Every structure is written in C-alpha cells, then in structure tokens.
Amino acid sequence: MKVVELGRQDYQQTWQAMIDFTNERTIETEDELWVVEHPGVFTQGIAGKPEHELNIKNIPLIKTDRGGQVTYHGPGQLIIYCLIDLKRNGFGVKKMVSIIENSIIQMLELYSIKAHLKDGAPGVYVDHAKIAALGLKVKHGKTYHGLSVNIDMSLSPFSQINPCGYQGLKVTQLSDLADNTIHMSTVSEQLTSLLINNINNNE
Questions:
Q1: CATH architecture of 2-196
Q2: For residues 77 and 187, what is the distance between their CA atoms, to the nearest angstrom?
C-alpha cells in the first residue's frame, strides 16, 4: 500500500483529487493512504443537518459526499484519506470503519492513552471527549475520505458546531493528553503503519 504525503493542501482540491483517483483506478491500482493537513474548514456530511451549524464565522463550510455530520479540519490535525478497494480486500465498509477506529485506539495506546468507542457515534473518544472523527464514501466497492485525529491544534472552532452532530460534545487532542512532546510526523508514521497492517491482516 502506498503512503502519499501531501503536506498542507486546500480541502476542495484534495476532495476532487480523491474522486478522480477513485473514478480512474482499475483492479490493479494499488491502495493508497493520503496524509494531509487542511487550512481551517468545516465540512458537512451528505446527510448532514444544518441545525448542527451553530455559529459559523470566518471559516468556510463545504458540503461533501462523505458520511457523518459536520466537523472541523485545521492545521495541527492529522488527516488520513483511505483510498481502499474493499472488494479486492474482501471486507465491507463496516469492517473498514472498525479497522480505522481500532488503528487509532492502538496508536493512542503507544502514548499510554486509553481510548474508547461510543455506540452509534463513530469515531474515537478519551473520557467521552472526541479525539478522532471518521467519514467514508464508498463508490463501486472503493472508499475515499477517511479519518482525522486532533494532534496539536486550535480546538476553539469546534464550539461553532455540534461536532459530528452531538450537542455539547467535548473535543480533545493528543498534545493535551500525552506526557511527552508530540511530533506530527511520528504520529503519522505510527498510524499509517497500523492502518496498513490491520487492512492487510483484516483485523
């Protein structure tokens, strides 16, 4: 599986690139993980409800084709887009969601952070505060979009929304929870490695 380091990129251009990659890939196309950060942007899922957009100011809002409700992306947040051929790997989207969530939990364990899931609320939580969000789109048995993990960022924009559609949901980030200094590149390498291993082993 190929890991593509994109650096900081415009959200809309990256979204279009994912669509193009998915439309053009063949049965032989290698799966890819795209590692990226975005300038500040709110994104709303395909079935997103506008009542969760509370008081959005000075930050663009983009309606996308992924699952899930509204969330925020910004500098200091690790985003990994998962361009995966589910059919070829032999599992469905529910399994893919589980692999993403478990990989994030395993990464947090490396920092002695105990994370958990919430019934009916995709993503990963620490003490009921959300640290990671996910949303996928499946087209012809292939995924795009992916996951975001709050690493070392400004969390204040989350107060302008109900994060992922949950009123009063607290958010947290790795730099506030870990005892040691956090490096985005290290976390990225750890999480992409876990994702690749778990996808390949269907765990």
A1: 2-Layer Sandwich (3.30)
A2: 11
In angstroms, what is the C-alpha Rg of the chain? 16
Residue ranges of domains in the chain:
2-196
N-terminal to C-terminal alpha carbon distance within the chain: 16
- Find the catalytic residue in 164, 171, 174, 187: 164
Look up residue 199 and give its amino acid: I
At residue 194's C-alpha, the angle toward residues 189 and 196, to 5°, is 95
117 phi and psi, to 5 degrees? -100, 165
Q: By the 8 A CB rule, do 38 and 11 touch?
A: yes
Q: Per residue in 133-160, pLDDT tens?
A: 999 999 999 999 999 999 999 999 999 8
- Provide the CA 45 distance to its chain's centre, in angstroms: 13
pLDDT surpasses 90 at 177: yes
82 is catalytic: no
